[in-house]
Design goal:
The complex is a heterodimer. By secondary structure, chain A is of the alpha/beta class. Chain A contains 10 helices and 10 strands. Chain A has 2 domains: about 140 residues, P-loop containing nucleotide triphosphate hydrolases (Rossmann fold), CATH 3.40.50.300; about 90 residues, Rossmann fold, CATH 3.40.50.300. Chain B has a two-stranded antiparallel ribbon. A two-stranded antiparallel sheet of chain B has the order 2-3. The two termini of chain B are about 15 Å apart. The chains are: A alpha/beta, B mainly alpha. The complex binds adenosine-5'-triphosphate (ATP) and magnesium ion (MG).
Chain lengths: ~260, ~325
């Protein structure tokens, strides 16, 4: 089954073609990684899929339905949840409240429920609390529930953002460089968490620079270079692909020059 | 045994600290009731402002937006109360309800288009309606009697039972303020309050989790307008008089000071800030000519030593108690 289909997805910023006619099928099962040098257009691709940036051309189909150009909250309601390359936590809230916000789409309490607190609303709140604590435990933050998100170390902030996204019960979870800023041990733990998310039936689409993480976690790897898709396939095959080696070596040479 | 005492007492301290601002508030109202005289008026105005600022805090503190024009909603409802009762002889309660509905309608008309736009459109729009409300009150003399204002506004009451004593007013205002603060606390600790706090934290992250940002901003704006309108009508019925100056830019200045001194974003901050800012000038009467200077110095000291407001001091103590427990 195909969870997500991109058809000729393109985004131009002035004269720059950040994403150049990308066509891609993301299978419902497993982990798909998008890799590529800095500026290859990975985040822009995510921004178009999740509705934050309108495409210049092309279509986004989610479970066969055209969601191109819909606002982010409507796309999220469809079951497509993303995280951000620069962590976007609610710094003003505790870790527990951050995850509780993630339950928004699956709860319904409005103003009246807040003020009158009918039985169903109290049960709903208890359920939000229970699930949020479960998810914190799942990512290894069980003992940080009451801690303000702002004071968590960076690695834990990343994990918290993932727990919050999971609270929304995504069908497709999109992670933008979740291992950035993590040490080796944290990265291994993250890899384990991502595998378990995928095993539970959530499609994972992942942008990542950390090659060991990609090789151990991804089932399929897609390579972008200058906005174009230059390779796609199993991790080992992609790593051996001359075009991919060229893109990365070219990038390294440019960095030295 | 000793171990048990060490683990339970910080919890009790935390619980007590949470009740502290409320307890001080009740003690203050009780003291004013006993002492009588000028203190009753000062605390009464403090409570009316507490209602106004609690609404402002919902919009600015919880939701992270800016409005310079909440005084417009106080003016709309306050003038509706004054005109409908003094000129047309309506029941005060009915006039107040009409004023609240009118303020809500204006808030909807102003908020719906501007809250959809990014940036500072709303702040500018609210500043404009605050100024427009003032100009209308000044210019529409046939109805508002201009700078002269409207006097002889009857006190609030239900079915012939009117609150005529100053002490009765104080008790009534204390009850309304307590309800207002409780409602704000209930909203803050609910799905709606979490959505608002999420918007204050990161609009992008909130949208990525399916929160309709424009809708919750509008909701917070409307709730804040209702609080402001209620405060406006209460003021007019308690004082028995209204003029443009009552709801002028001065009101915005005072409310902002109260919000920041009390602690923006906290549940108790508006109440604490409103009462403290009302009482401060009284406290410095002894300084005579230097009263304003002493008042200013006190404000600066407050913002240096409690930059997140007085209510945050209680939070700080509570957290210390919490750390004691963990250790
Ligand atoms: N809003 C924007 N306006 C103009 N140019 C943009 C904008 N967003 C991205 N770009 C440009 O588009 C190109 C692709 O950027 P993008 O952030 O998608 O790359 P990336 O693959 O995520 O890179 P990185 O690995 O550094 O995160 C870059 O050249 C970038 O400067
Ligand atoms: Mg990027």
């Amino acid at each position: 089954m195909i969870r997500l289909r991109l058809e000729g997805l393109t985004r131009r910023f002035g004269g720059l073609v950040a994403v150049d006619s990308v066509t891609l099928d993301v299978a419902a099962e497993g982990v798909t990684a998008v890799i590529g040098p800095n500026g290859a257009g990975k985040t822009t691709l995510f921004n178009m899929i999740s509705g934050f940036v309108p495409p210049s051309a092309g279509r986004v189909l989610f479970e066969g339905e055209d969601i191109t150009g819909r606002p982010p909250e409507r796309i999220a309601a469809r079951g497509l949840i993303r995280t951000f390359q620069l962590v976007q936590l609610f710094q003003n809230l505790s870790a527990l409240e951050n995850v509780a916000v993630g339950r928004h789409l699956h709860t319904r309490g409005g103003l009246w429920a807040a003020l009158a607190r009918p039985g169903w609303a109290r049960r709903e709140e208890a359920e939000v609390d229970r699930r949020a604590r479960d998810l914190l435990a799942f990512v290894g933050l069980g003992d940080r529930a009451e801690t303000s998100a702002a004071v968590l170390p960076y690695g834990q902030q990343r994990l918290l953002e993932i727990a919050r996204a999971l609270a929304a019960e995504p069908k497709l979870l999109m992670l933008d460089e979740p291992a950035a800023g993590l040490n080796a041990a944290e990265t291994r733990a993250l890899s384990e968490i991502i595998r378990r998310i995928a095993e539970r039936g959530t499609t994972v689409l992942l942008i990542e620079h950390d090659m060991p993480l990609v090789m151990t976690t991804a089932d399929t790897v897609v390579v972008l270079d200058f906005g174009r898709k230059i390779a796609e396939g199993a991790p080992a095959a992609v790593r051996a692909d001359p075009a991919v080696i060229e893109a990365y070596l070219g990038g390294a040479e440019a960095a030295h020059a | 045994m000793t171990n048990l005492r060490i683990t339970t007492s910080p919890d009790r301290v935390r619980a007590l600290l949470r009740l502290l601002p409320g307890a001080i508030g009740i003690a203050l109202v009780a003291y004013a009731l006993l002492a009588g005289g000028y203190l009753i008026s000062v605390v009464s105005f403090g409570l009316i402002y507490a209602i106004f600022v609690t609404g402002l805090n919902l919009f600015m503190g919880y939701t992270g937006q800016v409005s310079f024009g909440q005084n417009a909603f106080a003016a709309i409802s306050g003038y509706a109360s004054a005109i409908l009762t003094a000129t047309y002889g309506w029941e005060p309660l009915l006039a107040t309800a009409t004023g609240l509905a009118g303020a809500l309608a204006v808030a909807l008309v102003v908020g719906y288009p501007t809250l959809r736009l990014k940036g500072h459109y709303l702040a500018m729009a609210t500043l404009a309606i605050g100024l427009i409300a003032y100009e209308v009150a000044v210019q529409w003399q046939s109805v508002t009697q201009g700078y002269m204002g409207i006097s002889g506004v009857p006190p609030l009451g239900i079915a012939g039972f009117e609150i005529t004593s100053e002490r009765g007013n104080l008790l009534f205002l204390a009850a309304i303020a307590a309800l207002g603060v409780t409602a704000a606390a209930l909203i803050r600790h609910s799905r709606v309050g979490r959505a608002m706090a999420a918007i204050a934290g990161s609009e992008d992250a909130a949208r990525a989790l399916g929160i309709d940002v424009a809708r919750y901003k509008l909701l917070a704006f409307l709730i804040a307008a209702v609080y402001a309108a209620l405060a406006g009508s209460l003021f007019v019925h308690v004082v028995g008089f209204v003029s443009p100056e009552v709801f002028g830019l001065h009101m915005v200045n005072l409310a902002f000071t109260m919000l920041y001194v009390g602690g923006i974003g906290t549940v108790m901050g508006p109440l604490v800030g409103a009462v403290v800012i009302m009482l401060l000038p009284e406290t410095f009467r002894a300084f005579k000519d230097y009263q304003d200077l002493a008042y200013g110095a006190a404000l600066i000291l407050l913002l240096i030593y409690a930059p997140r407001g007085l209510a945050s001091l209680a939070d700080l103590l509570r957290r210390r108690a919490g750390e004691g427990r963990r250790a």
